[in-house]
């Protein structure tokens, strides 16, 4: 008996290419759930759901890897064989099929598709500042998608991006800069994932564009010499918006945490307000020492408290909801046209610089701004809370119109302790 006869009768796998087991087009359409081999490492994977896809199993650098070649409903058996052959040849030449696959994905993914993926990934755990989250993708939909939205990520070049931002570069300079930055973020992601082989097309574009003449616009703030007008206009009001606006003023806080504040964040003695990390822009818990004017606002708010909500400043029409961000703004603008609620923080900061002139780091901590080093890391320590309380008490005096201590040589700290802290 010759060698071939011995091999044919040997138990186990037959030698050779197993031609009789290769798939055919009819079987591909009707194959039951499971993994079916076509030979050469090519498999048809059929899920219980009926979904079917091509998989190539190969050895790369001594390790077995599986690479998806696409849906069997889109890619024919012949095309799957061609793809598997090309990939095996690439591996034999020492190439990396993962890189090749990413390049192909880059050619198959449009800018719009990737931008939406980046937007979701960037903000998926961020529940604060919903306006900014929506604005991020909205600006791309408005300005970028009509021009480059349908282009493959791999194919977009610098000329394409210039066509997006050039029309608004000088007419809407701030918007143009934001659009360019967000496009850059999308392509940073594309480069990081290997979806582009030519680098980020936005690189160096700022330097190539013509000069923009706009100036940075700040939140419109009230002059600190006029701030007592706000207090006197609202001091007798029982309106929830007025109380929230005064509380924002006296605590130098952002409007978001104020609108979302609940009674459980206020200590029983009304001495501190502990803002949870989730409500802070810095994502760190922050303790606000409450000055006497701020406590007075809370006492007035407490008179309105009902069992319907734990919110300190609930919506009058829907007590389980916080007041809208427009409530305080509209009220403020009936007193100071064009002023913004956020601008109150700028008013406070300017007042510290012009009137207090010292303790600039403490002022930054009152605003929950980072100041660096040990001071920043310790801003919730008792001694710094005491310093912030004294500054906010001084601010309370100024904002309520009690200006005498600031102009007649009085020791303002002693005045505050005698008036509020040491009643005896």
TrEMBL record:
Residues 217-392 form the Tyr recombinase domain. The keyword DNA-binding applies. Residues 7-20 have a biased composition (Basic and acidic residues). GO terms for molecular function: DNA binding. Keywords: DNA integration, DNA recombination, DNA-binding. Residues 1-20 are annotated as: Disordered. The keyword Zinc-finger does not apply. InterPro entries: CB, DNA_brk_join_enz, Integrase-like_cat_sf, Integrase_catalytic, Integrase_DNA-bd_sf, Integrase_DNA_bind_dom, Integrase_recombinase_N, Phage_int_M. SUPFAM superfamilies: DNA breaking-rejoining enzymes. Residues 109-191 form the Core-binding (CB) domain. Belongs to the 'phage' integrase family. This is Integrase arm-type DNA-binding domain-containing protein.
